[in-house]
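Good day; I would like, with your permission, to put a structural problem before you. The record follows directly beneath this note:
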Amino acid sequence: MNLIAKRPARSATVCVAAAFAALLGMDATRGGIQGSVHDFSGRIWSGGKICIVCHTPHHADPTVDPLWNHTLSTAAYTLYSSPTLNSIPGQPGVQSRLCLSCHDGTVAIDSFGGMTGGEYVSGDRLIGTDLADDHPIGMTFYHDGPLNCQNCHQMHPWGFASVLPFFDGKVECATCHEPHNNGVPGTKLLRKTVSQSALCLHCHAK
């Protein structure tokens, strides 16, 4: 008897979304990608699926966790520089390249699953490869205030809204931004509010 055939049918999209929600420690109260700016299920090239543009349960890029499906950017970036930094920024780590794979404009949004697409980000969503005027990423953060962020380092690297996670001890795009959060429009998917500089003061304690 084929017991699998008798199970209720579930869409691949729902199964994959549930798997990633469990993997990332998310729950319904923390928002989600559905309805967010990263929900491409309405585009013809997505096949009506939400997760597949970035993630896949099969044949994923083995160099990236979790289960990456989108073409990674190989661009070299112009980095932020300042004599006041106590850590030298390096080229963005893989957690930032996941974001930059669309937002630096060198890879099409619909380049995933081995396909080469032709739709690129534009407007204020296009960051480009010159990061000299953006918050430094790819750098180790040495705490300069009373806040002890060891909990940020120890927890699951994708973090929750109450903390700003580091990746191998480094600040990356996902330290401040949560790409799965449909959040409040116009807040650029930030993990914490910028009201009274709460986001900045989380690390730059005064």
Summary: The first helix runs from residue 12 to 24.
